[in-house]
Amino acid sequence: MRRGRTSGTSSATGAEQGLTEAFKAVNRCDTLVCPQFDLQALNTFAKNWFADRRSDTTH
Predict the structure, then answer these.
(1) By residue range, what is the domain housing residue 51?
(2) Which letter does DSSP use for residue 20 in this model?
(3) CA 29 to centroid of chain Cα atoms
(4) Which candidate, 30, 31, 32, places its Cα nearest to that of 52?
(5) Cβ contacts of 13 within 8 Å, gap of 6 or more
(6) Rounded to whole angstroms, what are the CA distances from 13 to 16, 43, 50, 51?
(7) How wide is the angle at C-alpha 24 spanned by C-alphas 42 and 34, nearest 5°?
(8) Apex 30 CA angle, 48 and 41, nearest 5
(9) How far is it, in rounded angstroms, from Cα 41 to Cα 46?
(10) How many domains does the chain have?
(11) Tell me: the pLDDT tens digits for 8-59?
């Protein structure tokens, strides 16, 4: 995703041309790929990861 700047704040401007997915999130064990940005899917992905014991790096 390209990033733009407007008056000192960042904004998402969309996927770069030629990429096969518009959005991709990665954690230690899984990958989420979406053809377009999906906040609900990202929230679910993150909640599932933080609920997973494998996300605890303190042990």
Answers:
(1) 22-59
(2) S
(3) 14
(4) 30
(5) 1, 2, 3, 4
(6) 9, 20, 28, 31
(7) 70
(8) 50
(9) 9
(10) 1
(11) 555 555 656 777 778 888 888 889 898 888 899 999 999 988 888 888 877 6
